[in-house]
Amino acid sequence: MAPASLTRNIVIFGETGAGKSSVINLMAGQEIAHISPDSHRCTLHWTEYQITFENGSRYKVFDTVGLEEPRLQTGEYLSAITNACGLVSTLKERGGVNLLLFCIRGGRVTETMQSNYRLFFEFLCEEKVPLALVVTNLERETRMEDWYTRNGCYLEKYNIRSAGHACITAAQLLDGRHRDKYEASRGVLRGVVEAHCNGSMEGWTGGQGWLASFISKLVEFVVGRPKKTDIIGILTKRCGMTKEVARQVVRQMQDEN
Ligand SMILES: Nc1nc2c(ncn2[C@@H]2O[C@H](COP(=O)(O)OP(=O)(O)O)[C@@H](O)[C@H]2O)c(=O)[nH]1
Ligand SMILES: [Mg+2]
Q: What is this structure's pTM?
């Protein structure tokens, strides 16, 4: 067993407005994440939060910016590379990823949802990290879990697979009736986090070529053709790679496509 004092790392992702910051506050039991519609929109930008449950379990939560559309424009891709370098090296430093939380609003499955799932689960974590779905906006359901009973099959149909799920409301300041659901949601969410974080003891750190492999897969989302020299420029100037390694990454990219 891992020692109780160990901090586990959670990466939360999903579109802007899905409720990620609200979910972090719900999990923390206090307002630590800023809820704002505007803020920083650059893909793979992240903010780190520390959360400790009453039972002593400690977590670092990485609140990330995902894709807002199914595809990335070339310029966005270049900024996403810069963010990816920082994110990957920070996650390594912190001991790797223990759990992915995919935050979605209860509604239909969209192409952007599928892209975010692929970006974080398949590309960033190479399917090696447990993923739990957090479905928000369910306060109008008589029983919030019913949403999954009705919709779980659609997620599977679109290849969005999860090890567990939490059907919740993450909205504070709702009226009395919904307030109970908010409090109940905290228990459900924490239960899912504990169930899937404690089992996987070591965080996943991606191995040697983690960053290179992630960046080269990322190119699949890009509309148009980013210039080789632009990519090499970013990898050497912003990500600290040598020219040699940067060229290798670009070559790997071309092999994948
Ligand atoms: N009704 C309702 N609103 C929610 C829920 N979760 C978040 N919101 C609201 O949706 C908006 C976006 O939430 P936020 O947490 O900032 O989403 P983020 O962009 O993914 O971090 C805010 O106005 C929240 O108050 C929910 O479960 N139900
Ligand atoms: Mg947010």
A: 0.94
